[in-house]
Amino acid sequence: MALAHNLGFPRIGRDRELKRALEAFWKGDLDEAGLRGTGARLRAEHWQLQKQAGIELLPVGDFAWYDQVLTHSLMFGVIPERFRKAGAARPDLQTLFAMARGATGGCCGGHAQEMTKWFDTNYHYLVPEFTVDQQFSLSWEQLFEEVDEAQALGHRVKPVVIGPLTYLWLGKVKGEEFDKLELLERLLPLYAEIFQRLAAQGVEWVQIDEPILVLDLPQDWKSAFERAYNLLQQEPLKKLIATYFGGLEDNLGLAAGLPADGLHIDLVRAPEQYPAILDRLPSYKILSLGLVNGRNVWRCDLDKTLEVLRHAHERLGERLWVAPSCSLLHSPVDLEREDQLDAELKSWLAFAVQKCEEVTTLARALSEPQAADVRAALEQSRAVQASRGASRRIHRPEVQARLAAIQPGDSQRQSAFAERIGQQRARLNLPAFPTTTIGSFPQTPAIRLARQAFKQGKLSGAEYTEAMHSEIRNAVKMQEQLGLDVLVHGEAERNDMVEYFAEQLDGYAFTQFGWVQSYGSRCVKPAIIFGDLSRPQAMTVDWISYAQQQTDKVMKGMLTGPVTMLMWSFLREDISREQQARQLALAIRDEVTDLEAAGIRIIQIDEAAFREGLPLRRSGWQGYLDWATEAFRLTASGVRDETQIHTHMCYSEFNDVIKSIAAMDADVITIETSRSDMELLEAFEQFAYPNEIGPGVYDIHSPRVPSTEQMVSLLRKAAQRIPAQRLWVNPDCGLKTRAWPETREALANMVAAARELRAAG
Ligand code: GLN
Ligand code: ZN
Q1: Is the distance from CB of 381 to CB of 300 less than 8 angstroms?
Q2: Residue 672, ligand 1, Cβ within 6 A
Q3: Candidates 437, 733, 747: which one to mutate for ligand 1, based on the most atoms within 8 Å of Cβ?
Q4: For 336-343, what is the mean pLDDT?
Q5: Enzyme group, top EC level (predicted)?
Q6: Where in the chain is the domain with CATH 3.20.20.210?
Q7: Ligand 1 contact, 603 CB (< 6 A)
Q8: Does the predicted TM-score (pTM) go above 0.80?
Q9: Which residues are the active-site residues?
Q10: What is the sign, positive or negative, of the torsion defined by CA atoms of 175, 181, 187, 191?
Q11: The domain 3-84+93-100+108-333+342-390: what is its CATH number?
Q12: 96 annotated to a ligand binding site
């Protein structure tokens, strides 16, 4: 029989217990014993849930107080100098949280470690910091303690560690430059030590995550894999090397041949690699097939999946294991918690607990195909596939007809930028270095309370509208007083830039408890695209029109773009990302033209997540960029030349995508640049980016108020790279997380900076 195992389980708890405990601990409302107690309870519960679901080999080491990469940094003693306590031999929880969140008071000094996205997920890890004289020493007992803990509960466990190459790959060199791969020889003895200790605890298998095997790797990294695993081969444990988030492609031979006892591959993301793997796998190795999607919320099509599995079973027999595609960290915890979803929709979904059950059903379908519960599960899966295939809620002819009718001209503005900009300048009549903001103003407690009261029915629709109108009036008055040129309404009515729109589109569903960890105690609850998408009615026109009525200045309309909507939602699997992007594009396009018809002269379409959508492999980039750019253009091109389209992207790396950014053809793009000292503009300069640019002149992540001189100096630097007549003046991003006093001061200084530049001519 094929062994059912799991690569990792979400750690936050089905009611986000870990989030609550962490935040209480940070506030001082919970002591360390209380926090540790919650952690232990959650681990016990999660092992139990997986075991009940039939998982035979349970992951240990998937729990983390903040982030699993950070746990490894502690385990290896990769603790930057600024977090080392004088006299203390070992790091403790305080050290861990200081590294994650920056020092707060007593412990040790310094800013938090940098955080960045875990591959192409919305999970963020803490970037290890390596120095040229980096030493490694086993400094953290958590993994061994948790193995003991699980064994004491009677579980058969498989510890999970991040592999040495992936760990080094994820880190960053600090101080003197050197090749971090040189650290491998120093790091490997720690793995040997860890494996020996685990073996002494009676562990048989260890899972070594090496997801970088699905990336384009430089040759020296590939060679390092062989070196590393040859060395580790002598260690007593059986090793399962786990790869996920994509196909092995050119690393397939390498991965298959590594001296380890098993290999896990992701057949959800990369089903095409299956035959090649079978060919290349040495006959002593276990093959673990990742067949249940750990990254999405849909039930698995068991029949279809069983076709591959039966084939594999014939070839591999006992050497076959079954698992989710990747750790279930990226999936919500338990569907059973949802009691507001309608029965049909709910029957289509599976969260982590249900995914474990699916893995087990698949494994048992090989050995006990006649078992009543297996047959019932297969029956149910068939019914789900049939109902989804035929559902009118999913497949909507009117949406498909509209998609089919798209013409090439629909994603083309009427005239070229050079022609449009003249008309826009004449109509808008703005000064040089026009000032604006990115959209949101502080989401004050009063705003959040009003929205809550409205959702609970304590505030009527009219009362809520009036509360938001009053916020808009204040925002407009404030901006007029500050002397900003292009105003915004402030986005008070929006909980979140994606959810706000998703709630108003047909084809989106929402869960109550579908939380997924984003970083630390932060969780997100992505909306679910379940069917063809359309916009039943205007979404923002009333708010923006109201705002425009309060002022003679230009009011900018504010929308979220199709690619960002897509990246921050759970997607359908029955149609491509590209098709879903196009549906979103048409829906938002209608909003754009409605805003124009309502007299709005500037419309901003935010694409904060545009770059996030890039595939992990370079070979996939162009295809993605083509359709993503096209989706944006389709959204933006329904308007007249005189209507100015803005876009906003809050990140920094443009070098490798600048061509597509230019192809989006937004009249104005605002970007985050202040922390790079305008160096990011180099990409735009070298490409001779033709349209207008608003390089952010101050960092909105900090409450610090930037001085006028600082912003003048940044703008001067910008003007060395971009012709001054094409520059806008704005902050890096929206101001919703800021408070009003610092916002007002910072914007006053920003307006003064723009004036100074104008005066200097
Ligand atoms: N318009 C949004 C805001 O100002 C943009 C946010 C973002 O880019 N992340 O909040
Ligand atoms: Zn932004």
Answers
A1: yes
A2: no
A3: 733
A4: 94
A5: transferase
A6: 3-84+93-100+108-333+342-390, 417-760
A7: no
A8: yes
A9: 701
A10: positive
A11: 3.20.20.210
A12: no
pLDDT, tens digit (0-9, with 9 covering 90-100), for 206-217: 999 999 999 999
Ranges 5-9, 99-103, 325-329, 512-516: which has the least confidence = 99-103
Is 612 annotated for ligand binding? yes
Share of the chain above pLDDT 90, in %: 95
As residues whose CB is below 5 A from the ion ligand 2, the structure lists 650, 733
- Report the 3 state secondary structure along 237-292: CEEEEECCCCCCHHHHHHHHHCCCCEEEEECCCCHHHHHHHHHHCCCCCEEEEEEE
Q: Assess whether the C-beta atom of 607 lies below 6 angstroms from ligand 1.
A: no
Pocket probe mutation, ligand 1, options 540, 558, 606, max atoms within 8 Å of Cβ:
606
- Its CATH architecture, for the domain 417-760, is Alpha-Beta Barrel (3.20)
| Minimum CA distance residue for ligand 1 atom 1 | 439
Among protein residues, the one with the nearest Cα to ligand 1's atom 9 is 608
- Closest residue by Cα to residue 331 from 347, 346, 352, 349: 352
Residue type, 725: Q
**pLDDT tens for each residue of 472-500:** 999 999 999 999 999 999 999 999 999 99
**Angstrom distance (rounded) from CA 103 to CA 101:** 7
pLDDT tens digits for range 215-251: 999 999 999 999 999 999 999 999 999 999 999 999 9
CB of 421 closer than 6 angstroms to any ligand 1 atom: no
Distance 608 CA to ligand 2 centre (A): 6
